[in-house]
Amino acid sequence: MSVHADALTRTYRRGSEDVHALLEVSLAIRPSAFAVVLGPSGSGKSTLLNLIGGIDRPTSGHLRVDGLELHAMSERQLDGYRRDYVGFVFQFNNLLPNLDALENVALPLVAQGRSWAQARAQAGAQLEALGLGSRVGHRPAELSGGEQQRVALARAVVSRPALVLADEPTGDLDLESAEIVLDLMSSLNRDLGVTFVIATHNPRLESRATQVIELTNGRMTPLTSRT
Amino acid sequence: MIHLALQDLRHDLLTFGFSVLGIGVLVFAFLLLIPLSLAITRIGEAGGLPQNLIIIEQDVLQPEQSRIAPSLAQDVSAILGDRLNRIDPVIFRIMRVEDHPIQLRGVAAESWVTTFRLRLLEGAWPSNSSEVVIGQLAAQGGGWRTGSEIRIYGQRFRVAGIADGPGTKTQTIWMSYSAASALFGPEKGAQLLVAHLQSSADPLTSRQDLESGLRSLGAEYDAYFEDALLREYGAALNDLRSLSLLTAVIAIAAVTLGSHNLAWLAAEERTRLLGILRAVGFDRRAVGGYLLFRAGVISVASYLLALAAAILFMRLGIGPNTLTIGGTQTALSLSPSMAVLGLLLACGATLTGTWLSVRHILSASPASLLGRGPGSSFA
Fold first, then answer.
1. Choosing among A47, A90, A148, which should be mutated to test the B contact, i.e. which has the most B CBs within 10 A?
2. Is the bond leading into B376 cis (omega within 30 degrees of zero)?
3. Which residues contact A67 (CB under 8 A, 6 or more apart)?
4. Hey, of A20, A98, A138, A163, which one would you mutate to test binding to chain B, going by the most B CBs within 10 A of its CB?
5. A181: domain CATH number?
């Protein structure tokens, strides 16, 4: 899935002040890319992912994902876009605490209209594929941080979205757990052709990237994106 | 979403329990107040309270000296209009019957039960003009029984039965108006008029209207309540009925407000959860359905708890389950239609309160639900 942004701006109102979280950002992410968005805190990485993921709207500019004009979509159309094309991985508090791992992973499938029984079966297979077959019945509080992120990754890819957005997916993990999660992401990208856009301030991720986008103070850093 | 809501409630049993208890108490109050109000209405409709205005000639010290003009009944009917149920002329005498002081009343027999609320204690109602019924005090004072012969004003009458009305304090003999008129002579006419008001009519206002209406006609009559004490009962009863209905409405309004607050708290606590649901593909309708279904489960559980408590209270006699006013007793009961009404109102109030509180959550973008403004991460 390709992403094209043209003069993308997102401005928040904070009191009487306008805060430009993103300003005039133009970029292109190629289909099946493993794109890493680098930048310090407050650089606009999360805002960019919000806009690409359709959970927020640009103040101005154009954003096209595989021909879908996101900036012009209605709320209902954005709901459908997220449901059918996008998977999310958050940094922490990713999972619904009252559901076990299997049910958490099944959620996107239920949102697509599948029965809980069908969704559970497919979610079980996905957890098995990510090495969590023995943890299906555990609730998030009973899982380690690394396991929680793997469950979140399973949830993000279980419905086979064309695009997975991950914001600081390893930010809360120890080194070993972080490597496991990143390996899984790389293999999913490679094996399934899923486009990954990962926001991080960890430069070590750069080595795995097929494309790097750097942001500073809401603007694209010159010479990016690199491939 | 149903599964998600049930899981949510199952894993937060303490909050669920307190929510059910909080709403249940209000629904319980509603389920008791509506039967109370209906019981009070039943008492009013059963004639348990006086709705009788007695019209008597002005400045007459003894009622038997009063004279009622033949056209007065028509004037009273015109003044009271549809507030009037029935109007009866009464032949009233205080006299000695076989050496016993007796209050004799001659009234149309068809008004004895409805207007004067006579209750037959023994024997039967008179079947002809030579029969009378006597009050319990008269039976005791005169030593008369059903079937006894009594000589009244020189004429013999048979006691058909013994009957009493509420608050009877005198030895009384009742006969039909025609029998009394024939006995004392039609030219003497009636001494009193008794206006029996509809149960929906306000006695105080009716009395004021009647008095001012009669004055404007130049008629010199006074209007009294049958019994001042019972009149006050009547006023209190009307107030009680209004108050219990008002309290029932307040209880339902409190269910709405309580649900609003509970749903607001639940939604605030689950803002991130709702954001995740929106992010993974659930639309607003599905998320709204989750919140409303959750509220619906709470309302149905609250209702069942309240219904069980109300049934225990009313049917098993755990609490006071009868109402006695003015000598009339009626049981508090919860009919199926009231139970269904309670369920519909409880669910309606809960869902309304929930919807009012979660509207802003449903209209928020997933990003704001996830707390993703400038400077935030996907956290």
1. A90
2. no
3. none
4. A98
5. 3.40.50.300
Q: How far is CA B294 from CA A131, B260, B267, in A?
A: 34, 13, 11
Give the closest of A116, A155, A168 to B378, CB-based. Answer: A168
Q: Quick check: is A35 in a domain?
A: yes
- What count of other Cβ atoms lies within 10 Å of the Cβ of residue A23? 19
Identify whether A42 is part of a domain: yes
Residue A94 lies in a domain: yes
Buried b or exposed e, range B296-331, using 16+ CB within 10 angstroms: bbbbebbbebbbebbeebbeeeeeebebebbebebe
pLDDT, one tens digit for every residue, chain B (379 residues): 777 778 777 777 888 888 888 888 888 888 888 888 777 777 666 555 557 888 888 888 778 888 898 889 999 999 999 999 899 999 999 888 998 889 999 999 988 888 888 889 999 999 999 999 999 889 988 899 999 999 999 999 999 999 987 766 678 999 999 999 999 988 888 999 999 888 788 878 888 898 888 888 887 888 887 665 556 666 677 777 788 888 888 888 888 888 778 777 777 777 888 888 888 888 888 888 888 888 888 888 988 998 888 888 877 766 666 766 555 556 777 788 888 888 888 888 888 888 887 787 788 888 878 775 544 444 3
Residues in CB range of B128: below 8 A, 6 or more apart: none
Nearest CB among B281, B286, B374 relative to A82 is that of B281
Instruction: Give me the amino acid identity at B238.
Output: N
- Closest chain B residue to A83, measured at CA: B281
Contact A56 B377 (CB under 8 A): no
Q: Is residue A133 part of a domain?
A: no
Q: Where are the alpha helices (DSSP H) in A32-135?
A: 45-53, 75-85, 101-111, 116-129
Chain B: residue whose CA lies nearest to A111: B282
pTM across the whole model? 0.63
Taking only the tens place, the pLDDT of each residue in A84-128 is: 999 988 876 678 888 889 999 999 999 898 988 899 999 998 888
- H/E stretch holding B103 reads strand B100-106
CA–CA separation, A71 vs A57, rounded Å? 6
Question: What is the domain range of residue A169?
Answer: 3-99+146-220
Distance from CA of B305 to the nearest CA of A (A): 25
B272, B279, B379 ranked by CB distance to A55: nearest: B279
A12:B374 CB<8 A? yes
Nearest CA in chain A to B368: A56
Is A90 in contact with B379 (Cβ distance < 8 A)?
A: yes
Domains in chain A, number: 1
Which residues of chain B make contact with A18, given a CB cutoff of 8 A? none
Question: In this complex, is the C-beta atom of B8 within 8 Å of any C-beta atom belonging to chain A?
Answer: yes
Residue numbers in A near B372 (CB within 8 A): 46-47, 50, 55-56
